[in-house]
Amino acid sequence: MKYEAVLFDMDGTLLDTLADLTGAVNHTLGQNGYPPRTREEVRTFIGNGARHLIRSSLPPEADEAEADRVLKEYRAYYLAHPCVDTCPYPGMASLVAELTAQGVKTAIVSNKPDETAKALGRRFFPALLTVGDDGIHPRKPAPDPVLETLKKLGVSPDRAAYVGDSEVDLETARNSGTDGYIVSWGFRTAEELRDSGVKELCRTAEELREKLL
Q: How many domains does one find in the chain?
């Protein structure tokens, strides 16, 4: 067995959540009198947590107190509507199932708000431990959430891999001492990933499977 544990990012890696994220952002912006953002704009804002997403979606003149207020509304709305169009990417559910069947410990480590991450985890990957951003502890690209998860699984970083779709995930793998694999179907373009230092992309779930098993 190549790895004892494989950890996955959620948004853009396991699940295509972009439509629901865009819908939640624009509902919240509209409720507060702000103009909507395009799907493409929201795509570029994802990866560094919900506060970064909302701060980036608001006009520059909005202050931090306003960002905090809008963030609270966004969190509540998205928690209530996380799965209108969200679905797993092709082949990912079967890959996770195959890893588990072969004895590889699997988990999700995401910068999505913890409550929403766990709700989606229960919906699509109920067998996986799911860890999101609790707003208290460091989030990716800090190594803390990956290392804490591996500790719970009883696996050392040198026997684990982290799979994601962004520069944040690449840095997370480096910081945590795990092998990192970046997929091409998520929320960054191939050009953006190359510019951020990604040397090799997994373009299908089958290509990823060959790296992990």
A: 2
Around 105, how many Cα atoms within 13 Å sit in the side-chain half-sphere?
15
H/E stretch holding 205 reads helix 205-212
Indicate whether 97 and 116 sit together in one domain.
yes
Instruction: Choose the catalytic residue: 9, 11, 20, 169.
Output: 9
158 in active site: no
**Mean per-residue pLDDT over the chain, rounded:** 96
pLDDT reported for residue 145? 98
Task: Kindly state the helix (H) or strand (E) to which residue 1 belongs, with its residue range.
Answer: none
Owning domain of residue 189: 5-16+87-212
Give the pLDDT confidence of 135-185 residue by residue, as tens digits.
999 999 999 999 999 999 999 999 999 999 999 999 999 999 999 999 999
